[in-house]
């Protein structure tokens, strides 16, 4: 059986519940060999005014120090021999929005792994059941089209020739290096389907939108994530759906796998099931980030 990795997890520093230590203990118990901690990166005040879902800018230093303490404990053997085999990777999940590049480059600090995601369209949340205005006002078809258009642009964040700073005619200057806003993998690619079984299903065919997403990811050279989080939601499906995952595979887009665990109990959740799903779509390997900013490949 392939080794277990989890490339998408959260702590109480953003919108999770567990500490770094609690998440690591859960990962070690699951036999995990790579655990990427990816709390939600700081958001502009107008998007997260009460810091309910992202790490406040004032807490970024404490966040890094807490991570390093647990990493040192792993190296010292405080989590047992199994802990010594766990590679603990410092990352963030960063939202894409207009003009995000400079913020991401500044706030990511020493993170070596960036997940890209879209939770907001024009400042409105698309995955929060207490704020359904965009779904009611725009309708599912318009939300889907807007999401996919922005998702495709986000694939190129920080890259030449896309929607990043350079594409808008902004060159690196001062302390701002656009490449530091580059996403390594795109989290839960079709998150927008979350409410499709709750009265907000699109009426348009999704295949043309899926084709756009696969083309963008391939052209940008970005990984995409296979997430088990949707299995815990009313949609009861992986992100991405089988048809979209198959398109990513045909386009040669490499894959990361994550639980999007927000509690210690969901760390490494259903990762083996995700491997089987990926294999059925034609994937024969996945990639995992390393603590030095590289990649390693795991055969399925």
Structural topology:
Elements (H helix, E strand, L loop, with lengths): L3 E6 L10 H10 L2 E9 L19 H16 L4 H5 L2 E9 L4 H8 L5 E5 L2 E2 L2 E2 L7 H6 L1 H16 L29 E2 L20 H14 L2 E5 L14 H9 L4 E4 L12 H10 L4 E5 L5 E5 L1
Helix pairs in contact: 6-7, 7-8
Task: Note down, in words, how this protein is organized.
With 300 residues, the protein is of the alpha/beta class. 31% of the residues lie in helices and 18% in strands. The protein is built from 9 helices and 11 strands. The chain has helices spanning 20-29, 60-75, 80-84, 100-107, 133-138, 140-155, 207-220, 242-250, 271-280; strands at 4-9, 32-40, 87-95, 113-117, 120-121, 124-125, 185-186, 223-227, 255-258, 285-289, 295-299. It has a 7-stranded parallel β-sheet with strand order 1-2-3-4-7-8-9. Strand 10 and strand 11 (295-299) form a beta hairpin. The radius of gyration is 18 Å and the shape is globular. The protein starts with a strand and ends with a strand. Mean pLDDT is 94; it is low at 161-173.
Q: What distance lies between the first and last C-alpha atoms, to the nearest angstrom? A: 8 Å
Instruction: State the low-pLDDT regions, or none.
Output: 161-173
Strand content: 15-25%
Read across the widest sheet, the strand sequence of neighbours is 1-2-3-4-7-8-9
Mean pLDDT across all residues, rounded?
94
Main beta-sheet annotation: 7 strands, parallel
Give Rg in angstroms.
18 Å
Number of helices: 9
Task: Please write the string of helix (H) and strand (E) elements.
Answer: EHEHHEHEEEHHEHEHEHEE
Structural class: alpha/beta
Shape descriptor reads globular
């Amino acid at each position: 059986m392939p080794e277990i990795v989890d490339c998408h997890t959260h702590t109480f520093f953003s919108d999770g519940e567990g500490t770094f230590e609690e998440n690591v203990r859960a990962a070690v118990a699951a036999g995990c060999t790579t655990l990427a901690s990816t709390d939600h990166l700081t958001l502009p005040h107008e998007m997260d005014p009460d810091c309910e879902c992202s790490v406040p800018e004032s807490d970024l230093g404490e966040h890094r120090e807490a991570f390093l303490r647990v990493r040192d404990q792993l190296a010292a053997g405080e989590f047992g021999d199994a802990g010594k085999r766990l590679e603990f990777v410092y990352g963030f999940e960063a939202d894409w929005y207009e003009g995000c590049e400079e913020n991401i480059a500044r706030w990511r600090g020493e993170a070596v792994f960036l997940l890209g995601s879209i939770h907001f369209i024009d400042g409105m949340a698309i995955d929060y059941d207490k704020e359904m205005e965009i779904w009611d006002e725009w309708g599912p078809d318009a939300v889907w089209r807007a999401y996919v258009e922005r998702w495709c642009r986000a694939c190129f964040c920080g890259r030449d020739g896309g929607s990043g700073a350079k594409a808008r005619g902004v060159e690196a200057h001062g302390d701002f290096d656009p490449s530091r806003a580059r996403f390594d993998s795109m989290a839960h690619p079709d998150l927008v389907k979350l409410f499709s079984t709750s009265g907000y299903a699109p009426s348009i065919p999704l295949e043309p939108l899926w084709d756009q997403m696969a083309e963008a990811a391939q052209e940008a050279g970005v990984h995409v994530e296979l997430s088990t989080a949707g299995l815990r939601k009313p949609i009861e499906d992986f992100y991405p759906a089988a048809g979209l995952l198959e398109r990513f595979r045909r386009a040669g887009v490499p894959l990361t796998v994550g639980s999007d665990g927000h509690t210690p109990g969901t760390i490494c959740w259903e990762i083996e099931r995700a491997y089987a799903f990926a294999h059925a779509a034609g994937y024969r390997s996945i990639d995992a980030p390393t603590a030095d900013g590289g990649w390693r490949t795991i055969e399925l």
